[in-house]
Model the fold of this input.
Amino acid sequence: MAALPHILVIEDSEDDRDLYERFLRDETSLITMAEAGEEGIARYRQAPADGVLLDFNLPGHDGLSILDRLRAIDPYVAVVMMTGEGSQDIAVAAMKAGASDYVVKDTITAATLKRALTNAIDKARLLRQLAEQQREQVNFIRVLVHDIRAPLRGLTAFTDILAEDLEAGIHDDLLDHLGMIKTSALRLNALIDTLAHYALLDKEPIFDEVDMNGVVDQAVANLKTEIEGSRADVTYGALPAVTGHEPQLVQLLQNLIGNGIKYCEAATPMVRIEAEADGEGNWLLSVTDNGIGIPEAKQQTVFEPFQRLWSQDVYEGTGLGLAICRKIVERHDGRIWCESEEGSGSRFFLTLPAASLLESAADLPPRSKQAVHG
Ligand code: ADP
Done:
């Protein structure tokens, strides 16, 4: 497989284009050639390359103006500026203008060209990721502020009403209003607790071999009150060992099982956890419930922070449970998604790396189903 992805060369000299072609031929999956600045911009617009080799001395333009225009199309374009000997100032100007790297033409070798392109592409990828994270953070804080205001508004409003009633000597609804104040305070508390969990997930976890049977046992024990209160049946077959961080995996299963019980109107909520090998060194785990289901249009957005489908009065929640699950699974290099039919239930799938690549579904020890209910 080629080490470099799609490279666009913007270079007017045929000799130089031939040289770059020769240097990069065996290293890239695709090279596109452009002989002039305008052509290069048009080609980039048509099919954005992963890396661009840009000649500084193009007829009618300098490389900086072309760089500006490429950056207007994509602020994170990975550009390596090709400069002449002794043009230190140009190189500095190019870097300031947003080039990822530069190469002096006269000293060029296949290795320097490849290294410059690889670094430029890596740098651009990191900057893009950083910008995406910043966007997510801003959005997260915006929604968080909104969600914190709701219970706070409840607290202020009901304390005001309480004060007015007390002043007027009306005592009929005192307990009701105190109850509402407590509910708002508890919601705020739950939000802050979950938020702390979410933030702590940014710490680098230490991975170990983890028995998923033990993980589900712990998750079920933590959900004892909910399971007994709803008389839910939580069952699971023989589960494998995975490579992971046990406390995070317990949190993951607890959130999924907890949701299966919470978003359910059946007389007996049923949640089943199963696992099979995916044939690529991972385990595919599924958590199936007989709950209210999730409309197809929302099956992806529910994994975003604070995306809730119901108001607090219908189902209590912070909207962070599945975002936490996604973060945990991604930390384990896995994927999480759901399939669901409104009214009949949901099935959450997640992949986790196997504890040993030699292990397969056939190696699972025979184990009887476990049922837990109140
Ligand atoms: P919450 O704290 O609201 O439960 P989550 O992030 O865990 O937040 O879930 C986001 C939303 O996805 C929930 O508010 C709910 O509408 C929906 N949801 C999650 N799990 C299920 C499920 N098993 N069945 C039906 N709806 C679900």
Notes: Residues 357-362, 366-374 have pLDDT under 50 and may be disordered. The radius of gyration is 29 Å.
